[in-house]
Amino acid sequence: MDKLKWIHEMAVDNGSKIILLVLDGLGGLPLEPGGPTELEAARTPHMDSLTGRAALGMSDVVAPGFSPGSGPGHMALFGYDPLEVLIGRGVLEAMGIGFPLTPNDVAIRANFCTVDADGNITDRRAGRIPTEECAKRVEVLRQIQIPGVEIFVEPVKEYRFVLVLRGDGLGANIPDNDPQLTGVPALPIRADDAASEKTAEILRQWWAQANRLLADYPPANSCLLRGISKDPGMPRFPEVFKMRSAAVAVYPMYKGVARLVGMDVIEHHAETPAEEFQVVRQHWDEYDFFFVHIKKTDSYGEDGKFDERVHVIETVDEALPILLDLKPDVLVITGDHSTPAKLKRHSWHPVPVMIAADAARFGKAGKFGETLCASGSLGFIRHVDIIPLALAHAMRLGKYGA
Known about the structure:
The chain is α/β, with parallel strands linked by helices. It has 15 helices and 13 strands. The chain has helices spanning 2-10, 38-41, 45-50, 70-77, 89-96, 131-141, 197-214, 237-241, 252-260, 273-282, 296-302, 306-319, 321-324, 370-373, 386-393, and strands at 18-23, 54-60, 105-115, 121-123, 150-157, 160-166, 222-229, 245-248, 264-265, 289-294, 330-334, 351-357, 379-382.
């Protein structure tokens, strides 16, 4: 956090505007040697045209070899070192739906899933059931009561829901019971320290009852518990960086990570990239910094759908003139991690980064993608470097030292 202290002291509010456009899971891999990644395969004339007036590079989200979750990925993007502060997915999901967490709360991000007669997981996302089906099952789970703790169950989106335990003496040092695999049962719920044993026992009881209740509701006939966590209290992004800051996102989790660091979350009904960009346009005069999140690049990567990932990137590029017409002083385009369709999972591969600004050290224009970015003027950086670099390119950072 010392770095944030120094950035705060150097930060200058000069009225310049920054957009951080995050295509979730943007980094990819070729399907065969010599082939293009998803970003390189996409038709992106607007992004390509920006490369000639941008600094390009590749970024390790956490550290070489680390495959980050979305929480660490976004915390790094916002300038908070994920090796120093690890925020659990449960807190982010709860904040994403506006649930008012208290210091006595433990929040859990849960997935409905499908299990067979032997209890082995056959689909970790229950066929991505629609949100209305999720809400029906949440109503069933609200029947569960356990002495000595308040229990809240709230739908999020599609197969996701939030479980919140409220009570005294609840620790949160408990690993996920999601094995991240199919064909195997859920992992046992266990505490990693004595302070979390009470929570683990409550969760064991709750999960056993949940499985009995959900047995009659296929395909979402079980659930997996992830991101068991408490709100750690974070330095506020708008105060640290001296920018009026807003988030435009569709999925609750990404609204949650923005709320966690103190950004305003703009409520809207947008679904497509073009609609999200119009939200930015409508609120352009109210803020200095906009975090804009595109989800489907990640979802299709996890499902192994290369062509669908390409298509989402192309729809973002088609809509990009809406943001370019606003003439931001700095436009950053990157991802929170890599999700290659080839691997069907988050991966450790560095993510392409573009910082388009008049103050950028321009390189060679070309096809925006991993190959060009690997030879860019930024070189190889870490994600925690992106916000300081954006501030510097917007002339929002003063001199360090005498």
